[in-house]
Amino acid sequence: MKITKNKKGWIKIVEASTMIIILTGMFLLILSGDRIKFSDNSEVIYEIEKAIIREIQLNNTLRNTVLESSVPLEWENFPSQLKSHINQSEILDCSGKICVVESECILTNPPDKNIYVQSAIISANTEIYNPRKLAIFCWEKEG
Questions:
Q1: 118 class by beta-carbon count within 10 Å (0-12 exposed, 13-18 middle, 19+ buried)
Q2: Full-model pTM
Q3: Bridge partners of 97?
Q4: Rounded distance, CA 56 to CA 88, Å?
């Protein structure tokens, strides 16, 4: 007399247990995802950079300073008025570069931090049409 075991029942139990574990894990992942918040200041930093660039675009003196500069112009050689305007934020350290419109404005010797970049074309005033690309590179201050 041979006894046959029905293994189909055990397989269904294992399948159901696995599905319950997967669904519970997904449910816990969804619930805990709302509680995990990272300190991400990127939107604030980009808004500060956009405001700085917008002020340069709208201020005749600063715009003329950009338009009259020789290119490429590294941060070390920036005019002091433009330099102080770009680096006015209390929470950011910034630098900049002025380039020809067609070229890439790349930061030389970047710090080992998250760098946020905004650039804009400064194109003309009533006397000069000599478009330049102004790039601003900012990172959070330490401390």
A1: buried
A2: 0.68
A3: 135
A4: 13
Measuring CA to CA, which residue among 99, 96, 118, 116 is closest to residue 107? 96
* Residues 124-135 pLDDT 10s: 767 778 889 999
**Contacts with 143 (C-beta within 8 Å, 6 or more apart), sequence order:** none
- Give CA–CA dist 73/79, Å, rounded: 10
Tell me the three state secondary structure of residue 113. coil
Residue 42 to residue 100: CA distance in whole angstroms? 27
Amino acid identity of residue 143, one-letter, is: G
d(CA 132, CA 114): 25
How far is residue 78's CA from residue 105's CA, in Å, rounded to a whole number? 14
